[in-house]
């Protein structure tokens, strides 16, 4: 059974080996259970206006380490979206960016992972569709590749300030608890007309 959700928001999850197959309890492996039974709400997917990436979000009732596998057919061979968890452990609010997508294309995906209860979880196959490429999307990203002149703080090397200007939607900068005082200053290296801006969801 394939369930289709075209939703207004999105994010999730880290692929655990064995999540995709059946487990044999008699052999000492954990049982594979339906992920839907631990979802607080159904997963939601928000494609980017360019149609080249989409963010999946889902919350679970128990701490989990999980991942989203996705593809243009039911083999899910296009990629794995890992959970953007700064703490590095199991948790309940999951978010992941699926990159390298094609505009105006239907994708299949499945959420799977390992729960704090020792069980493996796997969702049913679901789908979303990317929008057609937006001809009115912003032009050149003048901040891509710019030099970071100053930053209030960095959560860790994995969330360094340079991630804010590396042009990769699957990486991010996070401050070390600066809240509304978080700031980053970049040197574009030239004069540039800035006609718009876009912020990714942050922490």
Automatic annotation (TrEMBL):
InterPro entries (UniProt xref): Galactose-bd-like_sf, PAPs_N, Purple_acid_Pase-like_N
Pfam families: Pur_ac_phosph_N
Superkingdom in the source lineage: Bacteria
Domain Purple acid phosphatase N-terminal residues, every copy: 89-130
Official protein name in the record: Fibronectin type III domain-containing protein
Species for this entry: Blastococcus brunescens
């Amino acid at each position: 059974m394939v369930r289709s959700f075209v939703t207004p928001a999105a994010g999730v999850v880290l692929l655990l080996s064995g999540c995709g197959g059946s487990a044999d309890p008699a052999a000492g492996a954990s049982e594979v259970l339906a992920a839907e039974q631990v979802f607080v709400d159904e997963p939601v997917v928000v494609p980017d206006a360019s149609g080249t990436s989409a963010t999946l979000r889902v919350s679970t009732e128990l701490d989990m380490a999980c991942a989203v596998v996705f593809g243009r057919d039911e083999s899910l061979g296009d990629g794995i979206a890992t959970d953007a968890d700064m703490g590095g452990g199991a948790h309940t609010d999951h978010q992941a960016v699926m990159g390298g997508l094609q505009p105006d294309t239907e994708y299949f995906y499945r959420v799977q992972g390992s729960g704090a209860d020792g069980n493996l979880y796997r969702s049913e196959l679901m789908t979303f569709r990317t929008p057609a490429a937006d001809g009115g999307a912003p032009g050149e990203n003048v901040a891509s590749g710019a030099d970071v002149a100053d930053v209030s703080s960095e959560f860790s090397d994995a969330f360094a300030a340079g991630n804010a200007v590396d042009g990769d939607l699957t990486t991010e900068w996070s401050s070390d608890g600066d809240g509304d005082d978080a700031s980053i200053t970049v040197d574009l290296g030239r004069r540039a007309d800035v006609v718009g801006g876009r912020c990714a969801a942050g922490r």
